[in-house]
């Protein structure tokens, strides 16, 4: 621990010298912003935001420490939307098993998946609680530490392929399940996907029911003996461009072929690539680059899955974690950690540590949002994004200082335009996922 701290400190100092991009250092390492307990755009945090977990669940079986959330669209046979459910990946054991930030003490207690039904627009009745998903046929003795997840829509009530990145004991793998709308609390295990290219998979986004892009957050992982104590930290802090995004095509589970039919590198030489998301139109991919406080946008060829061109890089005022498009709009929601030392203190279990949350929305295709210099934007937010970064404008959807009653360590946010609901997950938050009702 002391070694780890010393190395982290040295790396931190080195990085200040090395790294000339002042924004990242200033915004995410040196200065802590003065956030309120809770702010949600166009609603009231105090009256419109609720945790979706059930407070009577036991601590080991509760919905807390949630990394990713994703919508599951239930469509009719013609592809028309009927209902949208929320899935969440949570791991109450994250404090003793986290392959990204440490530690690696005890992989035994399982994490879990949850499903939640968003309330109708304008409904004022008490929101329902999320339900825990049972994993049917899951191999005995196989760990489950879910991180990034995504699910294909269901058409006319058919089952959906669900993929979940799992930071298991020996290596990180991707689990494939089937989930059917007639029984949304039972995910049937299909198979475990392994690959030498799954070095540190973090986030995935589907390009068909049987293919996806997956980001690897580091080349050096904490699993490496001894080196794992400091190489990943140096890789993060110095923003070394060593990692990559893959595209994976799978065989059908019933065929005798190898599980992974094809692997291609979609993007190489990236520093800490994290959340990845395919746009609803299928022609754009957004990728969060955590250690550079940037979101990269790529043009995609839907026929070949090649990322043909990097169109732009947008600076965000925090270390971005996950990104998600809002369906039916051109909006990308970016969620992250405004102060890196604070989240480290939370991971290290420092008494009283809290780490803030920040969610912004970016419209990458709006010409009016193009590079404007150090303009003023986002002025409704308690801490406006324009007080931290220049360039593309963005709008704050959510902020919290992470203190008691707020939400700490926000990792993913999603908006459902139909119900107006905003969901925010907290990687190390005791309440896991908070849902904010819209008053629009
Ligand atoms: C459900 O139907 C859709 C649309 O036909 C199809 O793409 C998908 O593969 C089906 N799901 C499964 C698990 O077979």
From TrEMBL:
SUPFAM superfamilies: Calcium-dependent phosphotriesterase. The keyword Signal applies. Transmembrane segments: none annotated. Keywords: Signal. The keyword Signal applies. Residues 1-22 form the signal peptide. It comes from the Eukaryota. PANTHER family: PARAOXONASE, SERUM PARAOXONASE_ARYLESTERASE 2. This is Arylesterase. It comes from Laccaria amethystina LaAM-08-1. The lineage of its organism: Eukaryota, Fungi, Dikarya, Basidiomycota, Agaricomycotina.
